[in-house]
C-alpha cells in the first residue's frame, strides 16, 4: 500500500496473484460483451440487453456490481442504480439506465458499461457499439475515442506521472475537433469498484503521482462530438451532453507491471 500525497488516500497495490484474480473477472466482462454483441441491432431494447447480461454474469458464478450501487456520500440524493449494465445511447455520455422504452435504432451508437464481481474481485470495462451502419462523423468519433484509450494505455508505464495518461488522451481528442468530458474519470479497483488513484482523461499539472508496479486502474475516456459540457437527468444518473451531440466511451482495466501494462479486460 502507498499513500497518494495529493489526496492522502491509500492506493492499494496488487500482488501478482491478485492481478490474476482481477484478470479472471476482467475476462468474464469481455465474454459478456461478446454475448451482447450478437444482440445489438435495431429493435432491441436496452432492458433486453440488461437481462441478457445479468443472466450470463450470474450463470458464471459472478454478480453485477452496478445493480443497487450508490456512490459514497450520495445515498440520500439518488436512488440505487437499477441495472446490471449502463446503456448510454447517442447523446448519453454515461450511466444510462436500461429501459424497455429505449429501443435501439439504425444508426444509433450505444455505450455498454459492464461491472461484475467474481470471487471477490472486480472486472470493469466499457465499449461503444454502432447499431448497424452509422454516418461518417459518428464513425470518426468512435475511431478517435478508441484511439484515445489506446494512447492513454501506452502512457501507463512505471515511472510516468499519472497526468501523462490524460495528456495523451486530451491531445488526440482535441486535435481531431472533439472534447474530453472532465467530470467523470477512471479509477483504481480491486475488491472495490472505486479505489485510488483517480485517472483523469485530460492533462492536470497537479496530478504528479508516479505510476508504480502493482497499481490496477481503469482508463475510460468519454469523448464528445461537441462541447465537453454535461448535464444530468432528473433520475440522478443519466449524464448527457449539454448540446445534445453524441458521445462515445471505451474503457479497459489494466494492471501495471515493470514490463508494461497488462490489459485485464482485453
Question: Your description of this structure?
Answer:
- Residues 20-258 form the Peptidase M24 domain.
- It is a single chain.
- With 266 residues, the chain is α+β, with helices and mostly antiparallel strands.
- The protein has a single domain (15-260), classed as Creatinase/methionine aminopeptidase superfamily (Creatine Amidinohydrolase, Alpha-Beta Complex).
- Helix content is 26%, strand content 27%.
- The protein is built from 4 helices and 17 strands.
- It has helices at residues 16-37, 46-59, 136-154, 163-175, and strands at 2-4, 9-11, 63-64, 85-89, 92-94, 109-118, 121-130, 179-180, 186-188, 195-199, 216-219, 222-224, 230-232, 239-241, 247-249, 252-257, 260-263.
- Strands 3, 4, 6 and 7 form a 4-stranded antiparallel sheet that branches. A 3-stranded antiparallel sheet has the order 5-14-13, with no helix packed on it. It has a 3-stranded antiparallel sheet with strand order 8-12-15, covered by helices on one side.
- β13 and β14 (239-241) form a beta hairpin.
- α1 (16-37) crosses α2 (46-59) and α3 (136-154) packs antiparallel against α4.
- The longest helix has 22 residues, at 16-37.
- Mean pLDDT is 95; it is low at 1-8.
Low-confidence stretches: 1-8
CATH architecture: Alpha-Beta Complex
Which range does the strand content fall in?
25-35%
Global Rg: 17 Å
- The CATH superfamily turns out to be Creatinase/methionine aminopeptidase superfamily
What is the CATH third-level topology name? Creatine Amidinohydrolase
Q: Into how many domains do the coordinates divide?
A: 1
Query: Judging from the principal axes of the Cα atoms, what is the shape?
Result: globular
Order of helices and strands: EEHHEEEEEHHEEEEEEEEEE
How far is it from the N-terminal to the C-terminal residue, by CA? 26 Å
Structural class computed from helices and strand pairing: alpha+beta
State mean pLDDT (0 to 100 scale).
95
CATH level 1 class label: Alpha Beta
Amino acid at each position: 500500500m502507498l499513500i497518494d500525497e495529493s489526496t492522502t488516500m491509500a492506493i492499494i497495490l496488487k500482488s501478482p496473484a491478485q492481478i490474476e484474480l482481477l484478470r479472471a473477472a476482467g475476462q468474464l466482462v469481455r465474454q459478456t460483451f461478446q454475448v451482447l454483441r450478437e444482440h445489438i441491432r435495431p429493435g432491441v431494447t436496452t432492458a433486453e440487453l440488461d437481462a441478457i447480461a445479468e443472466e450470463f454474469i450470474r450463470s458464471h458464478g459472478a454478480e453485477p456490481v452496478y445493480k443497487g450501487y450508490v456512490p459514497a456520500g450520495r445515498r440520500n440524493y439518488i436512488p440505487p442504480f437499477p441495472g446490471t449494465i449502463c446503456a448510454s445511447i447517442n447523446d448519453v455520455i454515461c450511466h444510462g439506465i436500461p429501459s424497455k422504452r429505449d429501443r435501439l435504432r439504425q444508426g444509433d451508437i450505444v455505450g455498454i458499461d459492464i461491472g461484475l464481481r467474481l470471487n471477490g474481485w472486480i472486472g470493469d470495462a466499457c465499449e461503444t457499439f454502432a447499431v448497424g451502419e452509422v454516418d461518417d462523423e459518428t464513425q470518426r468519433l468512435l475511431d478517435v475515442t478508441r484511439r484515445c484509450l489506446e494512447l492513454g494505455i501506452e502512457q501507463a508505464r512505471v515511472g510516468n506521472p499519472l497526468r501523462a495518461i490524460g495528456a495523451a488522451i486530451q491531445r488526440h481528442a482535441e486535435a481531431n475537433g472533439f472534447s474530453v468530458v472532465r467530470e467523470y474519470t477512471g479509477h483504481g479497483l480491486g475488491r472495490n469498484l472505486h479505489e485510488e488513484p483517480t485517472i483523469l482523461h485530460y492533462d492536470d499539472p497537479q496530478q504528479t503521482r508516479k505510476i508504480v508496479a502493482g497499481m490496477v486502474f481503469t482508463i475510460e475516456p468519454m469523448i464528445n462530438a461537441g462541447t465537453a459540457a454535461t448535464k444530468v437527468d432528473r433520475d440522478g444518473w443519466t449524464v448527457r451532453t449539454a448540446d445534445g451531440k453524441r458521445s462515445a466511451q471505451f474503457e479497459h482495466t489494466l494492471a501495471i507491471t515493470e514490463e508494461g501494462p497488462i490489459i485485464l479486460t482485453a
